[in-house]
Write a structure and sequence with these properties.
- The chain has helices at residues 20-41, 82-93, 111-124; strands at 62-67, 73-75, 78-80, 100-105, 129-131.
- With 137 residues, it is α/β, with parallel strands linked by helices.
- Strand 2 (73-75) and strand 3 form a beta hairpin.
Length: 137
């Protein structure tokens, strides 16, 4: 006896899917979801405050130190000596976020003068140090 075993006398297998059990299973799942969803979403009603969730990015300021060919150091275009430079850099290192330090070294300046300025920045505790140069033409 084949599936469907109708009145046909030939022994052909029925190739159609019986949908009744599938519909029964789907109805049971639907009932389970209808019952469980309100239980899952049940919570105490509270009027929550509205706030902005955007991160406020505070951009650090930029300090520009210029080293001239004769070894003179300038803090944002104002001349400064080594002691004042160390004190100002130490004050800037305490700020949060720390400022970025850009060093503009004259190409005729001896490497020693630029290196001393770099060492002063490093000793003060500032972490971001960069160099400014002109693009080659």
């Amino acid at each position: 006896m084949a599936f469907g075993g109708g009145l046909d006398s030939d022994n052909e297998v029925m190739s159609e899917i019986n949908m009744t059990p599938l519909v029964d299973v789907m109805l049971v799942l639907l009932i389970i979801f209808i019952i469980t969803v309100p239980v899952i979403t049940h919570s105490v009603k509270v009027d929550l405050p509205r706030v902005s969730n955007e991160q406020q990015e505070i951009k650090p300021q930029t300090l520009t130190l210029t080293v001239k060919a004769d070894g003179a150091v300038f803090w944002d275009d104002q001349p400064i000596d080594a002691v004042q430079l160390q004190l100002k850099l130490a004050d800037q290192a305490k700020l949060q976020p720390q400022p970025e330090v850009h060093i503009r070294g004259d190409k005729a300046a001896p490497y020693e003068h630029v290196l001393k300025t770099m060492a002063a920045v490093q000793q003060s505790g500032l972490l971001k140090l960069g160099f400014i140069s002109e693009p080659a033409s």
